[in-house]
From TrEMBL:
InterPro entries: Cu-oxidase-like_N, Cu-oxidase_C, Cu-oxidase_fam, Cu_oxidase_Cu_BS, Cupredoxin, TAT_signal. This is Copper resistance protein A. The gene is copA_5. SUPFAM superfamilies: Cupredoxins. The keyword Metal-binding applies. The lineage of its organism: Bacteria, Pseudomonadati, Pseudomonadota, Gammaproteobacteria, Candidatus Berkiellales. It comes from Candidatus Berkiella aquae.
Length: 468
């Protein structure tokens, strides 16, 4: 199956969307059975593909899926037709770690589906998993029988079968799709995708760059490949679109662009998503767009489980700006979990004893954990160091849900290629003080106030406090 797909990838390498890295393939379903179905597009690898301009149907400004892509469609008798294939996939989380997930059309998450408000949408869903599945179109107003809850709205799609979903995309906004069948297992295995319904009027809420990604989490033991599907809260890999830092591409912008970032949360916990340097507004929620007069400025917005948020900002400050989940455990990779706290513990004696048995042994962090970002100790096969990634000034000491918004004066419109590290203007980088350091001036040293009083007045009071 894989080899026939690879052949088709090469064979189709000259076709339209294929120039962007999208391949079409016929696999286990016979060609006769597929004749009436739209071709199956797959993508090989976790590259961020450039926005795919619509070649049919109504015009829209396409999104950029972080380390992902958008699914091609065909128009047939006024319907916009897509073909999703649920199947086992291999996803690289970051160089050095590949995982065995379930997803759609060769990747987890599946491809982004982009339609226009008012489009009549028909989605063929072929099940190549070893068990039944369905797809729920999270957030969409649609006929009840198209909502995708197995048993409640439809019979489940058995392995080898293809089902058809048909509905009108009734309102513009940000949506997701995921199974509503054996949900705990299938979502823990990575089955999910993004959906954007663009407004009928292409100028409504128009931005210069429109990024999107899903938050997902996995529990994969170092050295293994398949997520532990029963884990409820104690995950060890926290991802943007099933990629972890330093495997996540930067969000590249031109200075003064209006930028939108759409985020959907399909993990088991909330994520306070934080942008450095510039303030943003939450412009869209699960229920649609927020009127401009009702938005408020933020630098962190909490995204709860099952929620979608669209944040927007003017990229007025050039630089390399960190963009990450503010739960510090969520910017760590697998090797950072379950380590004992060693701060203040003198481990020299025990280290020497263990080194006699295990030559590469080192214990973690008697002065904190920062040294873990610098050294690369031998790891089990197929896992990632707890924190890693190098910037122009040294180790970045991050993992998981972390990437960089790169704002550049000279980035061309529509150019998403990585411009490298920011060249800071002379005299604008924090620097080491090399002059003399005076003795700190202590307040109150000449007063008659006893020291014990200082402890009593630490908190400011609204009325006169005791030391006055
Ligand atoms: Cu988080």
């Amino acid at each position: 199956m894989v080899s026939s797909r690879r052949r088709d990838f090469i064979k189709n390498a000259a076709k339209g969307a294929v120039g962007l890295g999208v391949a079409f393939a016929a696999t286990s379903v016979s060609r006769v059975a597929l004749a009436a179905l739209p071709e199956i597009a797959t993508v090989n690898g976790p590259k961020t593909l450039p926005p795919a301009l619509p070649d049919s149907g109504r015009p829209f400004h396409p999104v950029v899926t972080l380390n992902g892509w958008s699914l091609p469609w065909r128009i047939k008798n006024g319907w916009k037709e897509f073909h999703l294939v649920a199947e086992p996939v291999i996803r690289e989380f970051a160089p050095g770690m590949k995982t065995h997930l379930w997803g759609y059309n060769g990747q987890s998450p599946g491809p982004t589906i982009e339609v226009v408000e008012g489009d009549k949408v028909r989605i063929f869903v072929t099940n190549r998993l070893p068990e039944h599945t369905t797809i729920h179109w999270h957030g969409q107003p649609l006929p009840n029988g198209m909502d995708g809850v197995g048993g409640l709205n439809q019979p489940q799609i058995k392995p080898g079968k293809t089902f058809v979903y048909e509905f009108e995309a009734m309102r513009s906004g940000t949506f997701m799709y995921h199974p509503h069948a054996d949900e705990m297992v299938q979502m823990a295995m990575g089955m999910m995708g993004f959906w954007v319904t663009h407004p009928k009027d292409p100028d409504f809420m128009k931005v210069d760059r429109d990024f999107c990604f899903l938050l997902s989490s996995y529990d994969i033991d170092p050295g293994s490949y398949t997520p532990k599907i029963a884990t409820m809260t104690d995950f060890n890999l926290w991802s943007f679109n099933s990629r972890v830092f330093p495997g996540i591409d930067p969000l590249v912008c031109r200075q003064n662009d209006r930028v939108r970032i759409r985020v959907g949360n399909l993990t088991m916990t909330n994520h306070p998503i934080h942008l450095h340097g510039m303030e943003f507004v939450v412009a869209g929620t699960d229920g649609g767009w927020i009127r401009p007069e009702a938005r408020w400025p933020e630098v962190t917005t909490d995204i709860a489980v099952g929620q979608m948020r669209a944040i927007e900002f003017d990229a007025y400050l050039p630089g390399d700006w960190a963009f990450h989940c503010h739960k510090s455990h969520h910017t760590m990779n697998a090797m950072g979990h379950d380590v004992p706290t060693m701060i203040g513990v003198d481990t020299k004696d025990i280290n020497n004893k263990i080194k006699n048995l295990i030559p590469d042994y080192m214990s973690m962090g008697e002065n904190g954990m920062a040294s873990m970002g610098e050294m690369q100790m031998p790891l089990p096969k197929n896992t990632l160091p707890m924190m890693t990634g190098n910037g122009q000034f040294g180790p970045i000491e991050m993992g998981g849900m972390f990437t960089v918004v790169k704002v550049r004066e000279n980035q061309k419109p529509g150019d998403y290629s990585d411009p490298g590290w920011y060249q800071n203007p002379k005299g604008t980088v924090a620097y080491e003080w090399t002059g003399s350091v005076d003795k700190p001036h202590r307040a109150h040293t000449d007063t008659k106030m006893p020291n014990s009083m200082e402890l009593k007045v630490r908190k400011p009071h609204s009325h006169k406090h005791k030391c006055e």
